[in-house]
Amino acid sequence: MHCNLCLVIVWSVLALTLCQDVPPFTEDCQHGMYKNHDRSLGVPPTFKVDLDKDPMTRWNDVMKHKGNEMKAMIGQVKNLLNNISPKLIETVEKYLPNIINKLPSPYDDEIKGIAMATGAPDADVLLFNIFYEIFTVCTSIVAQDTNGTLYHARNLDFGLFMGWDVKNHTWLITEYLRPLVVNVEFVKGGKVLYKAVNFAGYVGVLTGIKPGVLSFTLNERFNLDGGFVGMLEWILGDREGHWTSFLPRTVLESAASYDDAVSMLTKDELLAPVYYIVSGSKPGEGAVITRDRKETANVLKLNVTAGDWYVVETNYDNWSNPPFFDNRRKPAKKCLDETGQKRSQFPSIYDVLSTKPVLNKLTTYTALMRVDTGALETYIRYCSDPCYPW
Ligand SMILES: *[C@@H]1O[C@H](CO)[C@@H](O)[C@H](O)[C@H]1NC(C)=O
Ligand SMILES: *[C@@H]1O[C@H](CO)[C@@H](O)[C@H](O)[C@H]1NC(C)=O
Ligand SMILES: *[C@@H]1O[C@H](CO)[C@@H](O)[C@H](O)[C@H]1NC(C)=O
Ligand SMILES: *[C@@H]1O[C@H](CO)[C@@H](O)[C@H](O)[C@H]1NC(C)=O
């Protein structure tokens, strides 16, 4: 069951407390942002993760460079939780180590390996991984240009509810996350099998591309039966299903075609509802899959003959209106319409994702993907004031 009312209440309280000094801010569609992006500030490093290596050590190179940043981030999360309830942290630390062995392979060993490489407790790294199943707010777009080329892009917004800094107009956790953004090339048999944009220390995939085959993004779907409850029930041993961000790794590893990927993402049982946005390399291969835990609620497809040359997904079902306090869909569509199908390419889509509030204080990165060429470009993002908190 949907909990639109709870959502409205939570958001309204937040809006009232947060936005007294930050008025809602929307702006005209941006232009020329792609060219102007300061690449020296905002391109994350690329690491290789070899799937033929032992899961316990395959993340070592990433953690050698990003381990301290990951621990700083976990420290902040624990601080925030501690402010809510010291008992909570105590319980987490007691419970979680026993839970790791419930994780499917190879994720259990990967998480243990990351803990070992950084000296962080297993429970902390697991907590860090659980977090992304819960607090991700995003915008994803698949667009087909007049030549039939497909572009898949996303903003990843993360850190909602996580410590608003009234003075600096920033979200504490979002600030700690930006240095963790890395491009990962997953290697098998000595070749790059697929690529992903990750937060170092996180073993699932929220943004990924398998060159020539598919690209993929995941957006949170808020729901009473959603990420938080799903994870809690899983921890308590009451619930079966795939983690929403582990299934995509399986898909990227094993799907031989776009249709294969859609079929896998549509059928398998999940721990929580979610949106999977998928693109292929051929005209028409673009879809938003709206998932309930057990079933697929809806598949929204590109249909250029019907005039639908793009699909946009934020964090709401396509058949209902986004709430007034969080409408990123409308500005995204407006800017895509203004751009037009003919001019639809990386620069123009980057502009759409640079328009406030599609770009907001939670935005950590923008990723641009193109399956036919295998291109993946990632840019770290900041949103200068005035800018909406989400
Ligand atoms: C479409 O293809 C033509 C010829 O290959 C090229 O000149 C043009 O830039 C392409 N248009 C887009 C929108 O990619
Ligand atoms: C707020 O911004 C100032 C100046 O940029 C910085 O020195 C300070 O550490 C920031 N505070 C927090 C809590 O991030
Ligand atoms: C949502 O998607 C369904 C199935 O693709 C479609 O029939 C419906 O018209 C869409 N609703 C809106 C408001 O776009
Ligand atoms: C695309 O839209 C047209 C016209 O609305 C419809 O006849 C056709 O079945 C649609 N194609 C797909 C693949 O949904």
Describe the protein.
With 390 residues, the chain is of the alpha+beta class. It has a domain at 2-53 and 135-155 and 180-317 and 331-380: Penicillin V Acylase, Chain A (4-Layer Sandwich). It is built from 13 helices and 15 strands. The strands form three sheets. It has an eight-stranded mixed β-sheet with strand order 1-6-7-8-9-10-11-12, covered by helices on one side. The protein has a five-stranded antiparallel β-sheet with strand order 13-2-3-14-15. The two termini are 25 Å apart. Mean pLDDT is 84; it is low at 1-13 and 15-23.
What can be said about this structure in brief?
It holds the Pfam family NAAA-beta. With 390 residues, this protein is an alpha+beta fold.
Low-pLDDT residue spans: 1-13, 15-23
Largest sheet data: 8 strands, mixed
- The main sheet orders its strands as 1-6-7-8-9-10-11-12
CATH class of the domain at 2-53 and 135-155 and 180-317 and 331-380: Alpha Beta
Q: What is the percentage of strand-forming residues?
A: 15-25%
Tell me which CATH architecture of the domain at 2-53 and 135-155 and 180-317 and 331-380 applies here.
4-Layer Sandwich
Quickly give the structural class: alpha+beta
The termini sit apart by: 25 Å
Domain Choloylglycine hydrolase/NAAA C-terminal: 138-320
Protein name: Acid ceramidase
Family: Belongs to the acid ceramidase family.
Enzyme class: hydrolase
Give keywords.
390 residues; alpha+beta; Penicillin V Acylase, Chain A; 15 strands; 35% helix; binds 2-acetamido-2-deoxy-beta-D-glucopyranose; secreted; CBAH/NAAA_C; disulfide bond
